[in-house]
Amino acid sequence: MSIKIENHPCFNDASRHKFGRIHLPVAPKCNIQCNYCNRKFDCMNENRPGVTSRILSPLQALHYLEQALVLSPNIAVVGIAGPGDPFANPDETMETLRLVRAKYPEMLLCLATNGLELLPYIDELAELKVSHVTITINAIDPEIGAEVYAWVRYKKKMYRDVEAAKVLIANQLESLKKLKEAGITAKVNSIIIPGVNDTHVIAVAAKVAELGADILNCLPYYSTTETVFENIEEPSPEMVSAIQTATSEYLPQMKHCARCRADAVGIIGEINNEEMMQKLAEASALPKNPSEKRPYIAVSSMEGVLINQHLGEADRFLIYGLDPQTSECVLVDARSAPPSGGGQQRWEALADILNDCRALLVNGAGDSPTKVMNAKGIDVMVLEGIIEEAVYGIFTGQDLKHLMKSSQIHACGSSCSGTGGGCG
């Protein structure tokens, strides 16, 4: 196996006009809250980390990659960069990497992470020949870190303020050290936040250089609405340039960062094209394992018109398919729910009843049944609205954010449309 690490467009400026990258959005959950980040927003015109138009399962991601390589054969790098953190979703992340490495032995693999829960996976990352890892380190002083991060969730415990920053920074620095011991190329991102860490980034550079980091990306803070930092002005080009010059005494600089989305694809700086985004949508509409025959979608409804029933309250599920002749969704069956009670066994029984369904549409669902359904390849979607609209949208790979319950997502208005090139 010959992996050419110099072909990575994010780490090698000379490669960015020749080789493309693809981010596979398989990691929706995050384990920290940065005061500059709001992942509820998903505008196709917005080009920033934490944004994606779809979430994929590992096997859906492999299918999408296959389709993307047909459209863009110059893709040399497969990365996972969220939209949450890869290691807040370690099962999905590692399975995706295993699948890609098995299918494409010469492909570059990379990750972008906050580093909180990276450490336990570094040995396997090295075995999989993941060649590049990026860690975002915004502070090495916990007092400054406490201003950047609202909370950290580590080993099922919540941390806040200085304690949160201490936990995160310790794990970041230890992970960086181990990455280099494992022979993995390491890039450090530092977000320049005026009045918060702008005078501290040089100290970050000195420390990560000491631990062996290969390249530093000092990128300007991006103002995002409905965040703690929404009223902080973005750093001026002069400030960014001065910091890059000062930190270049410690590390080579990446100066062509495009602040990529979690579903970015193609040459850095180019807009995600519509055909590629359609392939992403189509992949997300497939069963979690695209090779399985799952022709149906199950719905929980009180009267058969609206998605308006909680999973735990349903005594029967309506089963819908897509008529191949008319391309219309049709009701094909109604199946009784298992008797109430029984805990996880009830949900295991329900998964068996719905084993030919790719998705289960409900108005509410608990964590336990959702985990059981997901483990059996059934996507539990919490929606509200007309059944036929949702079912048809899933079968055809349409965007269903307008049907998602308001507590789940906040998207741009209907007047906003685009292909991920960035809001003007």
The residue fraction in helices comes out at 25-40%
Radius of gyration: 22 Å
Query: Average pLDDT across residues?
Result: 86
In this structure, how is the largest beta sheet organized?
Answer: 7 strands, mixed
Number of domains: 2
Distance between the termini: 43 Å
CATH architectural label of the largest domain: Alpha-Beta Barrel
Strand order of the largest sheet: 9-8-5-4-3-1-10
CATH class of the largest domain reads Alpha Beta
CATH topology of the largest domain: TIM Barrel
Shape: globular
Poorly predicted tracts of residues: 41-46, 407-424
CATH superfamily of the largest domain, please? Answer: Aldolase class I
The total count of strands amounts to 17
Helix and strand pattern? EEHEHEHEHEEHEHEHEHEEEEHEHEEH
Work out the strand percent: 15-25%
Query: In terms of structural class, how would the helical and strand content be classed?
Result: alpha/beta
> Helix count?
11
Helices and strands in order:
Blueprint: E1 20-23, E2 32-34, H1 58-71, E3 75-80, H2 90-103, E4 108-113, H3 122-127, E5 132-136, H4 142-148, E6 149-154, E7 157-160, H5 161-181, E8 185-192, H6 201-210, E9 215-220, H7 237-247, E10 265-266, H8 274-285, E11 296-299, E12 306-307, E13 316-322, E14 329-336, H9 344-353, E15 357-362, H10 367-375, E16 379-382, E17 385-386, H11 387-395
Parallel strand pairs: 1-3, 3-4, 4-5, 5-8, 8-9, 11-15, 15-16
Antiparallel strand pairs: 1-10, 2-6, 6-7, 11-13, 12-17, 13-14
